[in-house]
Amino acid sequence: MLADSWRVRLAGEVGARSLRELGEDRLSAKKGCRNAVELLARITLASERTLTQRMRLGAAVRPRTALTGDTLPAAFPAASAALRAGALGYDSAAAIIDTLDPIRSRVGDLNLERAETALVAAATGPTVESPLPFSADEVRGQARVWEQVLDPDGTEPVEERAMQARGISAGLTRDGLVHRKMALLPEIDAKFETLLNAYLNPRSKPTFTDADPDAPKDPRATAQARHDVFASLIDGAARSADAPRIGGAAPTVLVSVRQADLDRRCGSGFIEGCDAALSMRAVEQFVCAGGTQTVLIGDDGRLISLSTSDRVFNAQQRRAITLRDGGCIIPGCTIPAAWSEIHHVIAHRDGGKTETCNGVLLCWFHHRTIETSGWQILMIDGVPHVKPPPWLRGGRSDAETPWRRSTKSRTQLADQLEAASAAESRAGSSPTRC
Ligand SMILES: [Zn+2]
């Protein structure tokens, strides 16, 4: 910490000797540099940003000179003394000075001194409140509290600026991804973060999955998992009964694809209003969850015929499936029913019908990856059963791995428990596809 002290004091000294009002006599000019930062950068090789902060700190902890020429104590005397003694680190000093200095003119020297003294005591510890010195982050947090207490209206202008600057930018397509910039107000971000974390936090899983030996470890990076929770959240919001209707229908994303490409399962689709092409797997997910409408266009570009959309599960079917499945049926997944899509277990092209005994709830991620993840789904007597991918079977072969009934519905789980305790076995039932 003594090294921190020397760095700050050196920057303060060079800054004071390079003040513009010193004219040709200023140190930086004598050394052939534009200003103190350039001079310091040449000596220390540190970055401009670091040096600017060091100089700001250095100025705050070095004795000041009055207009009369008298020497006055430093603007932050307690921090200055602790820094010199090597008791206060650079980051903690920065946290105190950078937070308190801007409010000095509004709160007065006396109040500022009170806050500074308390913060330096906490940073150099021990204090009554803490047996250990506060870390720099804790000091910054504490400094923000002091700022709020001393200058309660001070954040208003910041808030006004933030209100003006809030926004979500339009998307820019690059490398198959749409990039957006989000500038969220703190309370909105806090709600967003809480919502994401609620569905990412393993502790939020119902207890029956905790005891589930097949519950998989999530192979996704945290950022990817957050994206997927967001995807499910959007799905849920679009489907919500409260969502505004557009022409009588829930907000619908229109994807176009050529029939021949869809049949061959290659090529790509296009979303109205989006530059990026859509992979065939994404198109198939749209078809599975949202249905299709065949539009026949003649060689001359005329619309010849239009099929009705009949592959979408209607509201009654969704309610029934929701009651049966309770949420994404992949063990360990925490996405609730309202945010899940309905997957046709047997695809329409293979003769699968849009009926409750062929539809199961899957979250966006498990739906998108159902053909590649290795999870298998089978309807046995109209009830969804799953089989985990090979790497989760504990060395057992496909034949040795039993189909497990999968539901997140509490009423269904209660039924299962009751059935188990009554020692009723389903061993006799043989898998039948409905
Ligand atoms: Zn899922």
UniProtKB/TrEMBL annotation:
Domain HNH nuclease residues, every copy: 316-368
Stored InterPro entries: DUF222, HNH_nuc
Pfam families, sorted: DUF222
Family matches, as SMART domains: HNHc
Compositional bias per record (Low complexity), positions renumbered to this chain: 418-434
CDD domains: HNHc
Source organism superkingdom: Bacteria
Region listing for Disordered, in residue ranges: 389-434
The protein, known as: HNH nuclease domain-containing protein
Organism name: Microterricola viridarii
Taxonomic lineage: Bacteria, Bacillati, Actinomycetota, Actinomycetes, Micrococcales
